[in-house]
Design a protein that fits this description.
Elements: H1 2-10, H2 14-41, H3 44-63, E1 126-128, E2 156-163, E3 177-185, E4 191-199
Antiparallel strand pairs: 1-2, 2-3, 3-4
The chain binds calcium ion (4 copies).
The site of one calcium ion has 5 residues, from loops.
């Protein structure tokens, strides 16, 4: 009968239905396995933006400092003013040797204030989660806030400074530029490295 034949061609058998469900389940598992790692990583860009803001704030503070403890108002360290081949004449001074980087005598940057005045004073500065000063602060000892909130809770920052006169990222003996390295570790445990150069001007 024509009517019975057309009925047989429309629905699914139980076997077909089960196979369909199994295929769908396998496909869903496969798609979920592709999406899940992405969902886990989707937090990272926000952390990266915060880390970048934090690094910029610190690099701005450091860059605003004098190049060296031995630089005067208008005199640069290592400037041979009278061109006689040495640095022992009036107004002349040599730049701080790299092994003396870090705070100079009686200099500090703590939870109340800072009297850091040159770039390499920041060498060894560590703040935030896991360090003695567990809070990230500005030079006035104030907690860094973004829109009134401490978005850097759980973050940490560490700074190192070195000479890199040829600006190739590798320490050298050319004292004409200092490389400022800022490592920011997010509350998610991801460490991001930032760097900036400060020339002897
Ligand atoms: Ca000289
Ligand atoms: Ca200093
Ligand atoms: Ca110094
Ligand atoms: Ca170098």
């Amino acid at each position: 009968m024509p009517v019975t034949n057309s009925k047989a061609q429309t629905g699914f058998t139980l076997i077909e239905l089960i196979i369909g469900i199994v295929v769908f389940a396998v496909a869903l598992t496969f798609i979920t396995s592709l999406i899940s790692p992405q969902a886990g990583k989707s937090v990272d860009p926000i952390m990266q933006v915060r880390a970048t803001e934090l690094a910029n704030t610190i690099i701005r503070e450091i860059s605003a400092m004098s190049y060296d403890e031995n630089s005067g108002n208008s005199i640069r360290c290592n400037d041979d003013l009278n061109n006689d081949g040495d640095l022992d004449d009036v107004g002349e001074s040599s730049c701080t040797p790299i092994e003396s980087f870090g705070p100079d005598d009686s200099e500090y940057r703590n939870n109340t204030n800072s009297n850091f005045d040159d770039v390499d004073d920041y060498h060894g500065l560590q703040q935030g989660a896991g360090f003695a000063d567990a809070v990230i602060r500005n030079s006035l000892g104030e907690i860094l806030l973004v829109d009134g909130q401490n978005l850097y809770a759980g973050f940490s920052v560490s700074v190192s400074v070195t000479y890199d006169g040829d600006m190739d990222g590798v320490t050298d003996t050319d004292q004409s530029a200092k490389l400022i390295l800022v490592n920011v570790t997010t509350s998610g445990g991801e460490t991001i490295a930032f760097s900036a150069y400060r020339s002897n001007y």
